[in-house]
Design a protein that fits this description.
The protein is an alpha/beta fold. Helix 18 links the parallel strand 19 and strand 20. Helix content is about 50%, strand content about 15%. It has 31 helices and 25 strands. Helix 3 packs antiparallel against helix 12 and helix 6 packs antiparallel against helix 11. The protein folds into 3 domains: about 300 residues, 2-enoyl-CoA Hydratase, Chain A, domain 1 (Alpha-Beta Complex), CATH 3.90.226.10; about 180 residues, NAD(P)-binding Rossmann-like Domain (Rossmann fold); about 170 residues, N-(1-d-carboxylethyl)-l-norvaline Dehydrogenase, domain 2, CATH 1.10.1040. The structure holds nicotinamide-adenine-dinucleotide. Nicotinamide-adenine-dinucleotide binds next to helix 14 and helix 18.
Length: about 725
Amino acid sequence: MSDSSLLSLAIRNEEFGDVAVLTLNDPNKGANVLSQSVLVDFEKHLDDLEDRDGIVGLVIRSTKPGNFIAGADLKEFVADIDLPAEEVVKVAQRGQQLFGRLAKVPFVTIAAIDGVCLGGGAELAIWCDRRIMMDNAQTSFAFPEVKLGLFPGWGGTARTPRIVGLANAVELVTSGEGIDAKAAQAMGLAQDVVQVSPHRPDAEKDETSHEEPLLEAALRMVCHEAEHKDYLKDRDCWAAPISSEEGGISDTELGFLGATASAYIQQQTKGNYPAPLAALEVMLGAAGVDVEQACQMEAEGFTEVFGSPVNRALLNVFFLRDANKKQAGTDAEPAKINSAAVVGAGIMGQGIAAASVKRGLPTALGDISAEAVGRGVQGVLTEVSYNKQIKGPDVAKALEYTPLINGTLSDGEIANADIVIEAIYENQEAKQELYARLEPHLSESTLLCTNTSTIPVTSLAESLERPENFCGLHFFNPVRRMPLVEVIRGEKTSDQTIATAVAYSKKLGKSPVVVSDGPGFLVNRVLLPYMNEALLLLEEGASIKAVDRAAKSFGMPMGPIELYDTVGLDVAIHAGGVMHAAFPDRIEPSSILPAMVEAGRKGKKNGQGFFDYPKSKKGRPVPSDEANAIIAKHVTASKEFKSKELTERLMLPMLLEATRVLEDGVAHSVADVDLALIFGIGFPPFRGGLFFWADHVGAAKILEQLGEYQELGKRYEPTDFLKKTAEGDGKFYPH
Ligand code: NAD
């Protein structure tokens, strides 16, 4: 038999009979993935085992550390994306029939899960008669399909509710979130859980070793099932309807579950992500039929989501992220980073230090006074010891991380680190003074990085002895939630510095995008025209509510006016000034911002901005008469806006600026721009990215839309990049 490189089959002659052990480990990949060729081999193995006499059980397991099966091969999925619905049904049915054999073969089937078990892998496991899971940090069972705008199509929605109950299955499938071994056992998904052996935790397992506790537990289970045949009763039960006249979940319960789940999903997705609701509908609809019919309903429902615009957009985001993980920024070899230091223990410094500590890096944190350092260290420890489950600090975590953070006032201790990140306040002289003091203490190879949001990296490097070791490392606020880091190349930054900064950012679990130096770098440069336009719309007579609503209906996490309050109006004036100085012909700062700040309204940080943020409303924005009165003084027209016009007025300047960023070479690809905006400002993933959205609209149509706004001046003037795209195939993404 021609084994795919992923699968290998061994037959073990145990006292109680022959046990087939199918082992997954693709030596050429970091993860086990179910490609078509793997599925073909899997089918051959099942044929072979069914033809043999004496097999009492099949154990499916992986010897790839931390990975059972990462899912189906998404590249193959994309190749099928334009298939007609009747072909998509067949693709789903083929998977269902293949995996469905695991619940029909004449011996017990067991998935022995160690590591991630996702998507198609979770479906393979759910079709087995039994699941045993390793109780360790890596092991997680999930149906993440909804995160790609899909739902499980190889029997996941049909089989899971029959094993764990409809409510649990609905939560698993519609949330896309993973559960660990203990949670899986508690809901009846795993029938046994194996504790981590203290020795050889990450070692590749020997296929025949009797020391492998998960395999041993699986073999014990085969022995038990071969004797007692409990799995045969479960096969009957799990093939039957969930609700029927004879029992199971009642119509009332079904109605209640449907109403609460659908309300929750609507609130979470705001109508922008259709897959969870579609999955819910399929699962509720199939409660009264047997598993075969449930599979048929699943396959038909799957055609509604597969290839939909949201599915395509989310797949794009997946591939952007995947490509980003593989990019190193340059061909240079990164230096090893075994320790970090952060200077400036404010909002950003604390976030960066906490991210380093969480990844196990010894981290020094400095500031100008013992008090500021103490506050910073406290902030870092509060963040790293936070435990989601108990919604508070976890003493064990605090004890684990405390030795890694070193609050210090000593330049020598800061300079000992492999990478030093400056996050002091936004002042060029202060930053340069600090570098002049620190640099003599730094080794020849130490990286010095700045978290500046507006000051050109090249000018900050002017007086450095080793400007080649210097670059921008621009984290976004709050660091713990925002995955983007802009790695900014100054004129003299070396390739190795870029490679090391990229590697460090990845070590922190971030998605770094390498950009060239320039005003606002990438993200703030593209964001500012959109934000500024919001103020100009207010001047023309649009209401705050209408402007913010237009942006939110487009999918932005908050409207631009509320975003001003979040960023801080004083900070926004500064950033706007930088952009105006650089691009005076198209960035015209509104007079509203200075008037607000003059009236003491700085945004969320002092509870008053475009909105008020009263404590009684737990910091939520409420309209402010005072702010509205200030705005009224700056309104110069009383135009009535349709929501389509508001959306175009906001999004088109953003898109044009993004094309200029590419023309200027600040960003290197449409993919980088899209990833940076999704991960840096929360551009809606269901749009696939700014350029992906523009591709959906079409470059020619965008030119047409811009035509309507030409009297507004330079900021709506089509760029050469846009015009060329419109003259070509109309798409920004290369095909
Ligand atoms: P912050 O005011 O919260 O903290 C700055 C800290 O630096 C303070 O604790 C201050 O005491 C300390 N400091 C000032 N001079 C110092 C010196 N010479 N040596 C040591 N410590 C010194 O500021 P922040 O919001 O954390 O911003 C820090 C940097 O990050 C700025 O360059 C800012 O532009 C940039 N940034 C901020 C954000 C944001 O949203 N806050 C986002 C991205 C980047």
